[in-house]
Design a protein that fits this description.
Immunoglobulin-like, nine-stranded parallel beta sheet, TIM Barrel, alpha+beta, about 30% strand, 3 domains, binds (2R,3S,4R,5S)-2-(hydroxymethyl)piperidine-3,4,5-triol
Length: about 725
């Protein structure tokens, strides 16, 4: 890892463990991106200017002259609006005169060790100062006075960079930030495919791959959350790249609000990629002396294929994003009451769940939605975070005591950013819902969104949450969010700031999450939004795990978990065994074992045979805990490419063992199934725990094993565990 400034060449070279990123201060202090890719030793970019054609109709900078350079065709480091670069811009700031031509040029820079947090926003971190280095390039728009600092972090142990930008208005007149992206990257070709993750409730993060084409393409959210529909992830990969070969650039925005990830292929056949806050519905009033901080974007590069890109994200998030006690401490194996009881429970039923779950080896009972106000279905009480004593007589204390007596920990559910029209809070504070003046707001799941952009609202909600968490022995909180945000507005925002609402809302959410994780560092927090509607790196910075989907059908989960694994580690993927009946319990457990693993059913209803299967899985949970959370994932057979089988493998970091899982989605007779394993030490010898057979790593990876007949019916699963001898 190093960041070096070559004074003579005016070049910055930012090296991670395996990548180089090169920026040049060009004539007239334009910042150009010369290279991002596999690590290179030198900075000899003399030939570079040959690839800056000045296209006709693309204006040139008058000082540099008409030949050889146009902002429209140069690989601009951070593209701005209106000053001769017609591609999608990363920055547009309207000044007090009303024009929004924006043109930032290099002024100065500094390089330092370590990594600083971004004020009010979650971000990745360095475990020690030696692990990361930062380059801050200060730029200025000479005409408006806008100051923009481009911030780059490189990491020592992995090919990861992060980027963000901060804007300061040092003038005495206000400015309006119309768009500010966290990352802008110009690539010298358009022969790439773009991979994104699309979905909906119960069907999150399907893999979409498309060839880049001339024009603008990409994904975004306008829902107030990162959302089920598109994830703030995109990869630009070389044509033909597969799991093991080819170049892959992966990008992920550390943000849970409206985002945009766009690629434009231009007239020169080059690609610009930008990722950041969605400019639609956004504007920030940057008053004199104020600073605006963009969220952080994570950027990964590898020339070893899409699978390796995912593993880089996984390792990086486990080590430099997920934090707190449960980053390393073993997480309790939980059972959640939702699919077992929905709103229909009381103390006796929950204690009965715990009694039965205890016999299976389960370690924590989570009481989901329905414990507060007078909530017996989804049409009331959000905002009234006090115990419903009709269900839980005497409150939480006697319930928790009885759960703890069974030896189980206790967890609870919240949906802090919502308000039911039928709630004491709404009756007292009707203005606290998200709304715009004179317009009846849309309702979703019988609820409005609570305006957590307001400090007074956050004080109230936090006060209620703090009371319950501080007065009771609570080990886990599930933080839910069950609708998208429409009618985006806050009663407190003046008209010139009304388009700040979405960003202020998400900053409010982060403030609440920060209060919770700071006041209760021992609580295990699980993020959730109607399943995986807010599965993003920013939520992972607070909650080490996120409920991946409300869909617990193991066959459908294969798609969801394969897609989610594009950039999110197994340690983060909330995965439970439920009572759904498409497959037997063995398959349900084998699929949920990929993620955090837990249960979501009434344990009293399990047959004696199924209870034995569950006990086996509980034993596997402990046996494979470290392997699954710390190991390397190999997607061997993807359900997106094979309608018959899905298979994956998790290999220990030191290659000393691996767990293989295969699921038959659709049985076809007489089809030979050879599986070649991946990621092993070819010279080591591995023993199959099931039959004692020993094979070299080279054999397992090149010849593979004949697994024909190991799964014989739709929905059947097979696992194998190998250890080095
Ligand atoms: C949506 C979540 O995804 C479910 O797991 C459950 O917590 C419900 N909300 C409760 O309303």
């Amino acid at each position: 890892m190093s960041i070096i400034f070559y004074e003579k060449e005016k070049i910055f070279k930012l090296d991670t463990s395996d990548t180089s990123y090169v920026i040049k201060i060009y004539d007239e202090n334009y910042l150009l991106n010369l290279y991002y890719g596999k690590k290179i030793p030198d900075v000899n970019f003399k030939g570079f200017e040959k690839r800056l054609p000045s296209a006709s109709f693309s204006p040139s900078n008058p000082v540099i002259g008409e030949h050889g350079f146009s902002p429209d065709s140069a690989p601009i480091e951070y593209g701005c609006n209106g000053a001769g670069d017609f591609r999608i811009s990363a920055l547009s700031v309207r000044n007090a005169n009303g024009d929004n031509v924006t043109d930032i040029r290099y002024v100065s820079h500094k390089i330092y060790a370590g990594k600083k947090p971004i004020p009010s926003l979650p971000s990745t971190y360095a475990n020690t100062d030696d692990e990361a280095q930062i380059l801050e390039i200060t730029t200025e728009d000479k005409v408006t006075g806008l100051q923009a600092v481009l911030v780059y972090t490189v990491f020592e142990n992995c090919p990861v960079m992060t980027r963000s930008i901060r804007l300061t208005n040092p003038t005495d007149k206000p400015m309006h930030v119309e768009r500010v992206f966290s990352l802008c990257l110009d690539l010298p070709s358009m022969y790439y495919d773009m991979i994104t993750l699309y979905g909906r409730h119960c069907c999150e993060r399907n893999i979409q791959r498309r060839p880049l084409a001339h024009g603008v393409q990409g994904v975004e959210s306008k829902r107030g959350v990162s959302g089920h529909s598109q994830n703030p992830f995109a990869a630009i990969v070389s044509r033909g790249a597969d799991e093991d070969h080819g170049e892959a650039y992966g990008f992920n925005l550390v943000y849970s609000g409206n985002f945009s990830a766009l690629a434009e292929c231009d007239h020169n056949g080059t690609t610009r990629f930008i990722m950041g806050i969605n400019p639609e519905g956004f504007e920030w009033f940057l008053d004199s002396g104020e600073t605006f901080y963009s969220p952080e974007a994570v950027s990964v590069y590898t020339d070893k294929g899409i699978g390796e890109m995912s593993r880089i994200f996984h390792r990086f998030y486990n080590s430099n994003l997920i934090r707190g006690k449960y980053k390393t401490q073993k997480r309790p194996l939980l059972i959640n009451s939702w699919e077992a009881a929905y709103f229909d429970f009381d103390t006796e039923k929950l204690v009965a769940f715990a009694e039965s779950a205890k016999e299976l080896g389960i370690e924590m009972l989570v009481m989901d939605d329905g414990w507060f106000g007078k909530r017996n279905c989804d049409n009331s009480s959000l905002g009234d975070w006090f115990v419903n004593e009709e269900k839980l007589p005497g409150g939480l204390k006697p319930l928790i005591e009885r759960i703890n007596q069974q030896g189980l920990k206790f967890g609870i559910w919240y949906e802090p950013e919502m308000i039911s029209p039928d709630s004491d809070l709404f009756r007292a504070q009707p203005d606290w819902q998200v709304h715009v003046r004179d317009r009846e707001p849309m309702i979703g799941r019988n609820q409005y969104v609570l305006d957590v952009s307001r400090e007074d609202v956050r004080e109230n909600i936090w006060g209620q949450i703090y009371k319950v968490l501080s007065e009771n022995k609570i080990d886990y909180v599930k933080w839910d969010f069950n609708r998208n945000i429409s009618d985006a507005g806050s009663a407190l925002l003046p008209p010139e700031r009304s388009k700040e609402f979405f960003h202020r809302f998400i900053l409010g959410t982060y403030d609440l999450l920060n209060r919770l994780t700071t006041a209760f560092p021992d609580i295990l927090l699980e993020g959730c939004s109607g399943g995986g509607g807010r599965f993003d790196p920013a939520m992972l910075a607070f909650s080490p795990q996120i409920w991946t989907s409300d869909n617990t059908d193991p066959i459908e989960r294969l798609y969801i978990q394969f897609g989610t694994s594009m950039c999110y580690p197994a340690s983060a993927q909330g995965a439970h065994v439920s009572a759904c009946d498409r497959t037997g319990y063995k398959t349900k457990g084998d699929v949920a074992m990929w993620g955090t693993f837990g249960y979501e059913l009434d344990p009293r209803k399990l047959t004696p045979e199924d209870r034995e299967i569950v006990k086996n899985h509980v034993a596997s949970y402990h046996k494979y805990y470290d392997l699954i959370r710390g190991g390397d994932l190999y997607r061997l057979i993807s359900p997106f490419e094979n309608s018959r089988l899905a298979a994956w493998q998790i290999v220990a970091g030191d290659k000393s063992s691996f767990l293989f899982t295969m699921v038959c989605m659709l049985k076809k007779d007489n089809v030979m199934t050879f599986v070649k394993f991946k990621g092993l030490d070819e010279n080591a010898r591995y023993k199959n725990e099931a039959d004692g057979e020993i094979y070299s790593g080279a054999f397992l990876m090149n010849v593979g094993l004949n697994l024909t007949g190991c799964v014989n019916r739709d929905g059947e699963s097979f696992t194998a565990y190998f250890t080095q001898v």
